[in-house]
Specification:
Chain lengths: ~350, ~550
């Protein structure tokens, strides 16, 4: 069966609810539960998948009414965007539906997280991604490498863009790869590290693509990584801080995330490998003096992540977590700079990749 | 010859008349400041009018007018349609202190000591020098007698300034006019408030009041029936003290002690009388007049150790639940009225009866942040002063109002849009002083007041719970109503269906299933009620088990 266009699907969702109303029934939306309790690790595909637990969102229920209304508002906004062929950011959508309900003191949305969550629900309801619904995130992230693409009719060479590189759009579906000349893709958590490697022309010397975003990996970047892996069979390596958040960034790229378990298929890359930083790096390069003390919240998060199904039997990772706890410390990628500003590009990365010192 | 110091002093020593005593101790009778003097004067006159009308069994029609003569001087006039006073008695009733019939009678009434009216006359005389003016007429065709009276302070005797026959507009009744130094202001301690509360406790009263600002305030009659007539009863032995006993012994017509007890007291049979005399080792056959002090003391002690049944309780005249409710409804526009009249009880051999009411919401919502008003009544008379010294206030403070959904800080009156009313009816209300403003702290009385307060507290509590619930439900229903146009808009855009049609259908569903929608929220409350029932059953079962053992 051919998948419907997003705008048709939205119309169908609307029709479906109107049908319920016309039958004299209070409108109800059924949607899967998006929480850890309904997310499981599929050992076969090695990704996070959404379970079958369904929840009902009932308009005539005091606890659901507002959320129901928010969801329909977001759907309506998306439909208008699709009709006009325009994209709006998550922040835009928040402001487009934000208002006080007439005759009450109730704000339809108080916080962007509410509208964001409704958009994620809408992905499940319509079976279309946010990008397909013309809602984008802020673009965040840069890429450089010996690659030529076609983006909205413009031919762009990633290696001819100076110090800034190509900034990864929030939707990469429309990008057409013209030429990809690389042996692997290196994704790093820190933009500052990316700038260091770009300045050192690491990608040129090592024939690779380097990508970064600040903090959590955006969907655009995850999708870009997946396309590079699937379309060009490039190995993907992750370079992150030696702390629990770095580990989780790697986990999200590899297995998918809990909130977006329904999108794993389009984003998870089970073959991703973790390059560093590891406890062994710290030992090998004598970085013990360049660690940062852990906070209590870090420890709680370690406990949480270590108990996830996709981590709890992974001895190599549990060892890393144990060492974090033991040292009561974490290490940033930049700690390598203690050994010299270009130590990372000249020694650390080439050695690791050559020796295949990966963590999986 | 040089006088000794004692002889010198003896020249200064003389009998102090009651009137002279009053002059120096006016605060004891409620004339301690100009504000209170004005209100006490109105109070004494109105109380007397009401008592007189009720004795005659006519529905009281009372007119009160206060005219301001100058900044500090007022003329108070009160007219009633009571039985009037026979000519010869008028001077004594109004211009002789401690003259009256009420003191020796064990009957529920407004005034108790018979000092009231003449004290006002005296106060007026002391502050203005003017005589009081009285007109009274005792029946159709009879003349109206007009007096101007003063009190001879030294002799405590009336001094007649004028004695005339005049026309009086009514068939019978009395009009009193007293000029006095005073102060008029509005507020809780005002005359206006006193009359309003009087109207609440006496809904059978029709009162027209013209205040010094020339505002005419009418308090309509809402009950066309007089309250139950209080019956005079003989004193009960438990309430008798040695001085009273000696006085009664002197005044009795009984031939011997046993006969005296039987005749002068309630609930004393020949056997009880014997028991009292046996226990006290005082011969029951001696003449009552011959009982001396020590013997009287022995008698009082033996009374305490003798089991005597409670005094008759049908002698009291409460306001009544219906009348109090109507009185409150006409004077306070509120959302809820809870009223209770308790069964009579006894303290120190005196029967008494407590009534209480809680008035909630409505116009009271304007001061919902303030401490609640407590309206205190004794024998249908409002008590305005000495609130904190009163047993009623203490009982209100010691009741746990939080149980009834009313907030209350520890050791304070509760707060909220609430008026608490407490009335005590008794043949002898125990006041803390002669000003009759605060009720003494007898444990029996406090206990009864608290039980009455708890009863009305439960009533108002269940009302508050219901309204709060109803308001929350209405808010929820309202929320759906406001959401529907918004949702219809979004759905119309998505589906292409007409907005008005979707809105109409949604509103229909809301109306149809409103109950179910809102019921979801009340499940918790229902559960709670169920649990209460279960608890009760468990307790009852336990009690049964105890009985079986």
């Amino acid at each position: 069966m051919k998948k419907q266009k997003p705008s048709e699907k939205l119309k169908e969702v609307g029709n479906d609810i109107v049908k319920q109303i016309n039958k004299g029934k209070g409108p109800v939306i059924n949607l899967p539960v998006r929480a850890l309790s309904n997310v499981s690790f599929d050992r076969k595909s090695k990704t996070l998948v959404l379970g079958r637990k369904m929840a009902q969102r009932i308009f005539f229920n005091v606890a659901h009414a507002k959320k129901f209304l928010q969801t329909m508002e977001v759907a309506s906004v998306s439909k208008n965007l699709l009709k006009e062929g325009k994209h709006a950011s998550l922040r835009d959508v928040f402001y487009m539906i934000k208002r006080t309900v007439p005759g009450t003191k109730v704000n339809l949305v108080d916080d962007q997280s509410e509208s964001d969550s409704c958009i994620e629900d809408l992905e499940l309801i319509t079976d279309h991604s946010r990008e397909q619904l013309n809602v984008t995130a802020n673009k965040m992230g840069s890429v450089v490498g010996n690659v030529t693409i076609l983006d909205r009719g413009d031919t762009i060479q990633w290696n001819k863009l100076g110090s800034g590189g190509y900034s990864v759009p929030s939707t990469v579906e429309e990008i057409e790869f013209k030429k990809v000349d690389a042996k692997y893709v290196l994704y790093m958590e820190k933009a500052a590290v990316w700038e260091r490697l770009n300045e050192d022309r690491f990608w040129e010397k090592n024939k690779c693509i380097i990508i970064s975003s600040q903090g959590q990996t955006t969907r655009g970047i995850r999708r870009l990584l997946q396309r590079l892996y699937e379309e060009f069979k490039l190995p993907i390596y992750v370079l992150a801080d030696w702390d629990i958040y770095g580990a989780y960034i790697y986990s999200v790229i590899k297995y998918g995330s809990i909130a977006l378990a329904h999108m794993s298929e389009h984003m998870a890359i089970p073959s991703v490998k973790y390059l560093g930083i590891t406890y062994d790096d710290i030992e090998k390069y004598g970085l013990q003096k360049h660690l940062i003390k852990m906070k209590d919240t870090d420890k709680d998060r370690i406990k949480q992540v270590a108990s996830y199904e996709w981590f709890k039997d992974n001895k190599d990772w549990l060892r890393q977590f144990d060492m974090m706890k033991k040292l009561d410390a974490k290490a940033e990628i930049q700690a390598l700079s203690a050994r010299g500003i270009s130590f990372i590009s000249e020694t650390y990365l080439p050695t690791k990749i050559k020796n295949k010192e990966f963590l999986e | 010859m040089v006088k000794t110091k004692a002889e010198e002093l003896a020249l200064e020593q003389r009998e102090i008349s009651v009137a002279a005593f009053f002059e120096k101790n006016r605060h004891l009778l409620g004339f301690d400041n100009p504000l209170r003097a004005l209100s006490t004067t109105v109070k004494e006159l109105v109380d007397n009018s009401l008592d007189a009308c009720e004795e005659m069994k006519v529905l009281p029609e009372v007119k009160v007018e206060i005219k301001q003569v100058n900044e500090t001087r007022f003329v108070v006039s009160v007219q009633d349609n009571g039985p009037g006073i026979v000519k010869e008695q008028i001077p004594k009733v109004f211009a002789k202190l401690l003259y009256g019939s009420k003191f020796f009678r064990m009957q529920q009434g407004r005034g108790q000591q018979g000092i009231g009216v003449s004290a006002s006359v005296l106060y007026g005389q002391l502050t203005t020098g003017k005589p009081s003016k009285i007109v009274s007429k005792i029946g159709k065709g009879k003349p109206g007698h007009y007096y101007e009276l003063r009190i001879d302070i030294h002799k405590n005797e009336p001094e007649i300034v004028k004695d005339e026959v005049v026309n009086f507009e009514l068939d019978h009744g009395t009009k009193v006019e007293i000029e006095l130094e005073g102060k008029y202001q509005k507020g809780r301690l005002s005359v206006d408030e006193y009359l309003k509360q009087t109207a609440i406790a006496n809904p059978h009263l029709h009162l027209i009041y013209i205040n010094p600002l020339k505002e005419k305030i009418e308090f309509p009659r809402v009950i066309n029936e007089l309250p139950k007539e209080p019956k005079a009863i003989k004193p009960h032995p438990y309430g008798v003290e040695i001085g009273v006993l000696l006085r009664m012994l002197k005044g009795t017509k009984a031939k011997n002690l046993l006969g005296f007890f039987e005749k002068e007291f309630s609930r004393v049979s020949r056997n009880i009388a014997k028991e009292i005399s046996d226990k006290s080792k005082v011969d029951g056959n001696i003449k009552p007049q011959e009982v001396h002090h020590d013997q009287a003391e022995a008698l009082v002690n033996s009374i305490k150790n003798t089991k005597i049944s409670s005094p008759p309780l049908n002698c009291l005249s409460p306001i009544g639940e219906e009348a109090l409710l109507k009185g409150l409804q006409k004077e306070i526009k509120a959302d809820f009225y809870g009223v209770v009249t308790r069964r009579p009880s006894v303290y120190r051999g005196f029967p008494f009866q407590v009534e209480a009411a809680c008035v909630y919401g409505g116009e009271l919502n304007n001061n919902s942040e303030e401490l609640v008003r407590v309206m205190r009544f004794a024998n249908k008379v409002p008590l305005q002063y000495q609130q904190s010294a009163c047993a009623i206030t203490k009982s209100v403070i010691n009741t746990a109002w939080k149980n009834y959904g009313i907030s209350q800080s520890k050791g304070a009156l509760p707060t909220g849009p609430l008026v608490i009313v407490v009335h005590i009816a008794s043949v002898w209300v125990p006041f803390t002083s002669e000003a009759k403003e605060a009720i003494a702290h007898y444990p029996e009385i406090i206990k009864e007041i608290k039980l009455a307060l708890q009863e009305v507290g439960r009533k108002v509590g269940s009302y508050i719970r219901k309204t709060v619930k109803a308001r929350e439900q209405a808010e929820r229903a309202n929320l759906f109503e406001k959401y529907i146009p918004e949702l219809s808009n979004a759905l119309a855009n998505l589906s292409g269906e007409k907005k008005t049609k979707i809105e109409e259908s949604l509103n229909k569903i809301l109306k149809k299933s409103m109950k179910d929608i809102l019921a979801g929220v009340d499940k918790d409350i229902v559960e709670e009620v169920k649990n209460n029932h279960i608890e009760k059953e468990v307790i009852e079962k336990k009690e049964k088990q105890v009985k079986l053992r």
